[in-house]
Amino acid sequence: MGVVWLVCAVLLTTIAGFLQGRESVWAFYLSLPIALAAVLGYVLATTWWVTPSRERGDEPLGRTRVGLGLFVGAAALVWGFGYGINHQAWFGERVTATVTDSEVRCGGESGDCRTLYQLAETGSEAGLGWNSLCGGTAPDGGTVEVVVDPLGWMKPIAGDCVGRLTTSPWFTYAWLGGTGAILVVRVAVAVTVWRRESIGGGPGSPDDVRRDG
């Protein structure tokens, strides 16, 4: 059952990250309970009974398993929140866009102002929306490089933004490595419990064999 929880947690993490990448209000609020459910899934994957026939307290590495589940859950949260920009970095297609308009917009908690540029794909003239160019500038009619999601789910982003905003790959390594570690720990606990039962005279132990003889 623990492996089932782990698979569900990985799927929920991916779904939450995909929703986060949409960068819309409805997708953000929908992703939150899914992301938290994923964290719970990682904890359950580590703490769920390895051998259902035994008492939970008898299984080794109790606190370590809880800590591992929380660590992987936290890494999955960060990975999910940064999935949108990572998706563009991994799968996005780079196209040339033309600046069709620009305007200065102010707002947010800091009240800072920034220049946004309306872009259209060069050649097809397909609209790519407004983009900040991550601090870069371009004149009206100028061209910039834009990364476009082939699925059309993520918003187009300026090519210069991808390298600056991409979430550190260490969170990906921590998440995937931690997920693998959960499987390793579960196998190690199962082996430890099996050895303990064998030495302690559990079913199938040498003592049972001698008594049967």
Helix content: 40-55%
- For the CA atoms, what is the radius of gyration? 25 Å
Count helical runs: 7
Strand content: 15-25%
Shape: elongated
* Strand line-up across the major sheet: 3-2-1-4-5
Count of DSSP strands: 5
Major β-sheet, in short? 5 strands, antiparallel
- Write down the overall mean pLDDT: 81
The end-to-end distance, rounded to whole angstroms, is: 36 Å
Oligomer status: single chain
User: What structural class is derived from the secondary structure elements?
Assistant: alpha+beta
Q: Unreliable stretches, pLDDT < 50, 5 or more residues?
A: 203-213
Series of secondary-structure elements, N-terminal to C-terminal: HHHHEEEEEHHH
Describe this structure in words.
This protein is of the alpha+beta class and 213 residues long. Helix content is 55%, strand content 17%. It is elongated. The chain has helices spanning 2-20, 25-47, 62-81, 83-91, 159-165, 169-200, 206-212; strands spanning 93-106, 113-121, 127-131, 143-148, 157-158. It has seven helices and five strands, in the order ααααβββββααα. The chain has a five-stranded antiparallel beta sheet with strand order 3-2-1-4-5. Residues 203-213 have low confidence and may be disordered. The protein starts with a helix and ends with a helix.
